[in-house]
Design brief:
- By secondary structure, the protein is an alpha+beta fold.
- Helix content is 22%, strand content 27%.
- It has 4 helices and 12 strands; from the N terminus they run αβββαββααβββββββ.
- The protein has a 7-stranded antiparallel beta sheet with strand order 6-7-8-9-10-11-12. It has a 5-stranded antiparallel beta sheet with strand order 4-3-2-1-5.
- The relative contact order is 0.14.
- The model has no long low-confidence stretch (mean pLDDT 92).
Length: 250
């Protein structure tokens, strides 16, 4: 009986967040991607007025019902004096149409993701950005799944962003626990650095694992959904909801 109670408790922990997000009404479950908002949020500096290098990472709730569970993440880079940003991201619809899932191209970096406003996860400018942009772009070109996309458990858009973060640990990028797919380790690996580069994780194909790192704290991955606790925040992390609590300044 205690065994079944434990299983029931674990199931409740996994679904309470997504259920809350579905009932809260903040995520449209019946949106039309053709008319959804794709305007700039005004977060990224205009390259016409800002000549310094800029390197940013964004997240936004995934489109439609997927947003109840997860976010979509992407990377934007602008070398010094560049006339535009280059956005690096993995797009499922491209793979479904027989195109490479990975796309790097001139794009507005801070557009809403089909109705979901973007959240800035990393913002480097000037010399710090200029120093890391070549390493980030090299990591983008080394991504091992440029033509593959699988919504769950990966490889997907968050697998890509986490790959780049692990390849360039100087970014110190902490991805939200709602970035489902971030724990899908490349080439069948069982052990890897945490995306922030401040610890390590063990993961079985993104379905089961544990992460322990200075920035992320402790995260448990069950079927791709993450539960976590950050003692330095302090904060708890719940599936669907993400981080609840405080965050130490980077």
């Amino acid at each position: 009986m205690n065994k079944w109670k434990s299983i029931g408790f674990a199931v409740c922990l996994l679904i309470v967040g997504p259920v809350y997000m579905a009932l809260a009404g903040d995520i449209s479950l019946a949106g039309d991607w053709r008319t959804a908002d794709r305007e700039s949020a005004g977060i990224a500096p205009d390259p016409r007025d800002h000549s310094d290098a800029v390197l940013q990472v964004y997240s936004a709730r995934a489109f439609s019902w997927r947003g109840v569970f997860a976010v979509h993440t992407w990377i934007a880079s602008k070398p010094r004096a560049a006339p535009h940003y280059t956005v690096h991201q993995v797009l499922g619809w491209r793979a479904w149409r027989g195109l490479p899932a990975l796309r790097s191209g001139a794009e507005v970096p801070d557009r809403s993701w089909f109705g979901s406003p973007p959240e800035l996860l990393l913002d480097l400018r000037g010399k710090a950005a200029a120093r890391l942009i070549p390493a980030v772009e090299a990591a983008v070109h080394r991504y091992p799944y440029p033509k593959r996309y699988r919504l769950w458990p990966g490889p997907n858009s968050n697998t890509f962003t986490a790959w780049v973060a692990r390849e360039v640990p100087q970014l110190g990028l902490e991805l939200p626990t709602t970035a489902i797919g971030k724990d899908y380790l490349a080439n069948g690996s069982l052990l890897a650095r945490a995306p922030s580069g401040t610890g390590y994780q063990i993961s079985l194909q993104g379905l089961l694992g544990v992460l322990l790192a200075w920035k992320e704290g402790l995260e448990l991955n069950l079927l791709g959904l993450n539960l976590g606790f950050d003692p330095l925040g302090p904060a708890i992390k719940l599936p669907g909801i993400g981080r609840l609590g405080f965050r130490l300044d980077n």
